[in-house]
């Protein structure tokens, strides 16, 4: 069965459930009357305490801050993440860059082409195995990566000054614990920042 048909069946089933006699509905899905028409009650969730919502919102805010900071260097967040990966080793394979950055293949390919075109990285086939590509930062790439890291750190630190040192340390400790304990998805959808 196609995904489209499956989705259509779920929507039809949901519509049928809302057409059930009021006495047979559960109170949590009781309709809300508005100007002569009935609609389902809002979903019962307090987003102010829902951790996934909070982390997603925080990520969006920080992504915007980092994007704005990197604009002055004409570097995208994807570019910066690739350069950070390459700054950690002499040379990386495409697989290593994917694993480090979490970028989806199309975003990574665009970043690599762009970084190579502006002289920040080089790509070459490995002598031992021509199927593998070696990706390296150029000396200019190292300089730009260092500058980008500095402006991102400055911009984020300025926004996070509202936290005390102890609060930051607690936040970092909790984030590390969650990352260690929550299993990663089998298929990455790419990272926002």
Task: Profile the largest sheet.
Answer: 2 strands, antiparallel
CATH architectural group of the largest domain: Orthogonal Bundle
Please work out how many helical segments DSSP would assign.
Answer: 7
Number of discrete domains: 2
Distance between the termini: 35 Å
Low-confidence stretches: 14-28
Structural class determined from secondary elements: mainly alpha
- The third-level CATH topology of the largest domain is Arc Repressor Mutant, subunit A
Mean pLDDT: 82
Task: Summarize the entry for a quick read.
The chain has 193 residues and is mainly alpha-helical. The chain is 55% helix and 9% strand. The chain has two domains: 3-40, no CATH class; 51-181, Arc Repressor Mutant, subunit A, CATH 1.10.10.10.
Characterise this structure.
Helix 2 packs across helix 6 (139-159) and helix 3 crosses helix 6. The protein is built from 7 helices and 4 strands. Strand 1 and strand 2 (37-40) form a beta hairpin. A two-stranded antiparallel ribbon has the order 1-2. Helix content is 55%, strand content 9%. It is mainly alpha-helical. It has 2 domains: 3-40, no CATH class; 51-181, Arc Repressor Mutant, subunit A (Orthogonal Bundle), CATH 1.10.10. The two termini are 35 Å apart. It has helices at residues 3-18, 51-71, 77-87, 94-101, 105-117, 139-159, 165-181; strands at 31-34, 37-40, 121-125, 133-137.
């Amino acid at each position: 069965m196609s995904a489209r048909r499956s989705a259509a069946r779920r929507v039809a089933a949901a519509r049928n459930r809302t057409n059930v006699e009021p006495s047979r509905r559960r109170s949590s899905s009781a309709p809300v009357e508005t100007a002569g028409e009935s609609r389902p009650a809002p979903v019962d969730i307090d987003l102010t305490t829902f951790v996934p919502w909070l982390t997603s919102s925080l990520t969006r805010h920080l992504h915007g801050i980092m994007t704005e900071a990197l604009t002055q260097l004409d570097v995208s967040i994807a570019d910066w993440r690739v350069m950070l990966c390459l700054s950690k080793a002499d040379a990386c394979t495409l697989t290593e860059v994917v694993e480090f950055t979490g970028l989806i293949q199309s975003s990574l390919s665009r970043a690599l082409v762009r970084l190579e075109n502006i002289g920040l990285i080089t790509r070459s086939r490995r002598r031992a195995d021509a199927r593998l590509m070696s990706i390296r930062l150029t000396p200019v790439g190292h300089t730009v990566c260092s500058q980008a890291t500095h402006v991102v750190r400055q911009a984020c630190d300025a926004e996070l000054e509202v936290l005390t040192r102890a609060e930051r340390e607690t936040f970092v400790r909790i984030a590390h614990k969650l990352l260690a304990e929550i299993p990663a998805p089998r298929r990455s959808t790419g990272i926002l920042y």
